[in-house]
Amino acid sequence: MAETPQHRLGELMEESNPAFEDVMSCVFGIEDHETRTYLVLCDRPRSTIAELAAALERDRSTVNRSLSTLRDRGLVRRNRRLLEGGGDVYQYTAASLPEAKEMLHEALDAWTATVHDVIDEFDDGVD
Fold this sequence. Notes:
127 residues, two-stranded antiparallel sheet
């Protein structure tokens, strides 16, 4: 069974030069395939689920779940487009890479501050 992203911090810290994708998965708590979906969407703005499923060679339900997670993390936006013949379709656009990098920095800074607080507040009972 693969480790969940939030449990991969130790593995990530052991890497002297971790891949951006691994950092992104770990910090945002997303799966590798969700990170891949984000990166593919960066190159294909305003894609539909069907278009992404074809590009990723994954089924639509998996892509839909990935997009839902990415939207929850603020990495993807969804817009509805009306079709000329009636009906509508959702199109997805990734947050820009600079936006994602800023979000990564903010999340890491917040986590680091929390860890520093834990260290500073630890009382081992020695006077």
